Amino acid sequence: MTSRHLVDPQLLPLLDALPDVAMSAETLSARRARPRVFQPDPLDVGITDLQVRMIPGPKGAPEVEVLVYRPSGSPDLLPCILHFHGGGYVAGDAQGLEAGHRRLVADLRCALVSVNYRLAPETVFPGALEDGYAALSWIVGRAGELGVDTTRLGVMGESAGGGLAAGLTLLARDRGEHRLAFQHLLYPSLDDRTSTMSEPHPFTGEFLVTPAVHRFAWTSLLGFEPGGEGVSPYAAPARAEDLTSLPPAYIATGSLDLGLEAHLEYARRLTRAGVPTELHVYRGAFHGFPLAHKSDVARAAARDARAALARALAPS
After folding, report:
1. How many domains are there within the chain?
2. Which of 130, 142, 165, 278 has the greatest number of C-beta atoms within 10 Å?
3. CATH code: domain of residue 173
4. What span, in angstroms and rounded, lies between the C-alpha atoms of 57 and 135?
5. Among 44, 131, 192, 257, which one carries the catalytic annotation?
């Protein structure tokens, strides 16, 4: 059943502009070669600093590249966002989000560290997550040098990056070495079982991230077909039995996103576990809708996300 009649009219131009090519092993190289969608504003470049650093990776693994942003000339200890980019676990990089990250750092007067984690299928789980944990440990260990207030350090990610951010909150809680202040999850990839349900939602997942794309992404990440036994909750946070003692959560999704029901259920379970949780569902929006940045719904989502981050980063 088509869901086009449910799409926000202002998002239809984006929908029509999307390439009609499903992400697969055959198209992955072309997907990785796509140019940046947005270029940083020269004004933002002038008021923010960017350092590209190579940091120690997980034991026995290569170094991890991170991009460290700060407002130019800020002598203060700043709150910090540890960020994971999207791309279905198989594509994307931190550099592609420079425009948004510079604006975010300038607006919120915070630091931001974005992780160029290893991609699947060349590196399967837990490689990307452990790269993120290495970045978290590096931030905490170098907090003085970086000018970061570790009591206001949280995680953020979109799509696959949101799934990694959610997984990192579980991993950090269970290892007990570092404490995170918040988790900011934008249409996160939470559940490998979404594309294998016997009764899928009839109106989600028609656009951009379809069940086929979802299955390819998760097969690449796990190294085997999703939906079965033996999938770690650190890979698929929706599988975690215990969600207590996690940091406050912000979850944003679209009413036509394939992951909608996983997002709703995760938010419900977080609240039942006593985790302060804010959930936004944007009517008529499909996965990746913020790309239509001039639409009213994308503007509303950006405004809400920015306000939530400002609250999360504020001194307690």
Report:
1. 1
2. 165
3. 3.40.50.1820
4. 8
5. 257
pLDDT tens-place string over residues 208-230: 999 999 999 999 999 999 999 99
Three-class DSSP category at 315: coil
Q: Which residue(s) pair with 186 in the sheet?
A: 158, 252
> Is there a contact between 160 and 167 (Cβ–Cβ < 8 Å)?
no
Task: Identify the domain containing residue 290 by its residue range.
Answer: 4-313
| Tokens, residue 51 | 């350092």
Which residue, chain included where needed, has tokens 């452990």?
130
Per-position DSSP letters for 219-249, written without gaps between them: HHHHSS-TTSS---TTTSGGG-S--TTPPPE
Of residues 16 and 162, which shows the higher confidence score?
A: 162
Cis peptide bond upstream of 126, omega within 30: yes
**Would you call 24 a catalytic residue per the annotation?**
no
44's enclosing H/E stretch is helix 42-47
CB atoms within 10 A of CB 281: 15
- Catalytically annotated residue among 85, 101, 263, 287: 287
The 8-class DSSP code of residue 126 comes to: T
**Whole-model pTM over 0.85:** yes
Q: Could you confirm whether 287 is annotated as catalytic?
A: yes
How many C-alpha atoms does 105 have within 13 Å on its Cβ side?
A: 34
Reported as type and span, the H/E element at residue 83 is: strand 78-84
**C-alpha to C-alpha distance for 197 and 193, rounded to whole angstroms:** 6
- Tokens 């796509």 map to which residue? 34
**Are 92 and 116 contacting, i.e. CB atoms less than 8 angstroms apart?**
no
Question: Would you state the structure tokens that stand for residue 87, as one six-digit string?
Answer: 């791309």
Give the CA distances from residue 125 to residues 10, 202, 218, 235, in Å, rounded to whole numbers and listed in that order. Answer: 37, 30, 10, 7
Per-residue pLDDT of 38-91, as tens digits, reads 889 999 999 999 999 999 999 999 999 999 999 999 888 999 999 999 999 999
Amino acid occupying residue 28? L
Concerning whether 257 is annotated as a catalytic residue, the answer is yes
Q: Which of 114, 159, 195, 295 is catalytic?
A: 159
